[in-house]
Amino acid sequence: MSMAPSSTDEHAIDELAIAIDELAITITELPLETRFPPFRLRQYGGFWLLEKFLQGVPAVHSVFEPRPSDVLLASFPKRGTTWLKALAFATRNRAEHPPRGLDHPLRRRNPHDIVQYLELQFAQSMGHVVAALPSPRVLATHPPYSLLPRRITAEDSGCRIVYICRDPKDAFISSWFFTKKTVAAVAARAQAGEEPPPYTFAEAFELFCDGICVSGPQWQHVLSYWEASRRQPEKVLFLRHEKMLRNPTSNVKKLAEFMGCAFSGEEEATGVVEDIVELCSLESLKNMNVNKSGSHGPLAHESFRKGVAGDWSNHITPAMAERLDKIVEDALQGSGLTFDVAAEPSA
């Protein structure tokens, strides 16, 4: 059952609105973190956000007009985002683009080119590209729930939010590999002889444990959407990456129902759900030429690196895992949220 905002919540929302207006002027005055190469992070609202994304936040709050049919895909960076974009787009647009079609957009374009990041588009063009998209729109965002515009989170907005979370240890490993690849790509474009800044695995782990990473702390980011999904389950769908891996078909059905485009009996009988799962599988996306040499270059391929659950055990020592687990456990205490999904049903 949904809960109406209390007077305290409304006061906090008003304060946030004022702060957002001021943010457009004060971005360069916010705490800066440069130890997460090659990204520049600014601390705002308790989170470390990418400077280029943060620049679009004021415009999203003041200009963006959500539509009742909009679906917003929210995630912590590098935590199943690419896969969720592909699944949501293919599911929502299956009538116009059958998943078996050889000219399906996902066979020709990277999921990040198809499903636009809201803040990035507003930072680059004040959202003209987003405004021109036909309904129903599927959009993406990385900021925590607390920094989304009230016009999106309001119960009567109609806009629905799908959030995908991942175990913090796997989240760290995914981030580490992507950052390493990004540093190498930036260095390759730099002047000859210019060495990339040093960035070791140990340094990255320390920063992650301190909550210093893109959109970090990761566990607080997850918690913000978890709590929203508990308050408004009809508006915020909370998905777990590990469960989706174990039973993608069941979770794609759940995703379709939540988005208001449930599969018909005929579609299920003819294998449409399985076709979408196959089209959007990480292996399938990784092997498409557009994701090897398209607009996102070699970094696109890194988006589909593994996506498996438990890969952290191949990289993190037991002591490191225990330390991170304790940090997360303390932060989530009393929330009802846990990352221990091994014994839970896969659906």
Automatic annotation (TrEMBL):
It comes from the Eukaryota. SUPFAM superfamilies: P-loop containing nucleoside triphosphate hydrolases. Its EC number is 2.8.2.-. Keywords: Transferase. Pfam families: Sulfotransfer_1. GO terms for molecular function: sulfotransferase activity. Residues 68-336 form the Sulfotransferase domain. InterPro entries: P-loop_NTPase, Sulfotransferase_dom. PANTHER family: SULFOTRANSFERASE SULT (PTHR11783). Belongs to the sulfotransferase 1 family. This is Sulfotransferase. It comes from Triticum turgidum subsp. durum (Durum wheat). The lineage of its organism: Eukaryota, Viridiplantae, Streptophyta, Embryophyta, Tracheophyta.
